[in-house]
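Quick one - inputs below.
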Amino acid sequence: MRVVVDLSRCQGYAQCAFLAPDAFRMHGEEALMYDPNPDDSQRDQVLRAAAACPIQAILVEQLEGPAMTVEARRS
Ligand code: SF4
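Output:
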């Protein structure tokens, strides 16, 4: 999955860092650092963090195309 945070809108509320500490981290008082490509195992946490952001600064794109799920089958 891919995560983009609009840092020009982020107010450093740290809700995301609290809910998904592996993907979002506060650096100092207000600067947010984040993983733009978190592992799918963090999906629930990241979605919860995005939903909790008071100003909806977190955009999550789920990259689930057929290429990732289709298995090659030969008979
Ligand atoms: S919850 Fe939103 S405003 Fe708060 S630090 Fe995270 S992205 Fe920024």
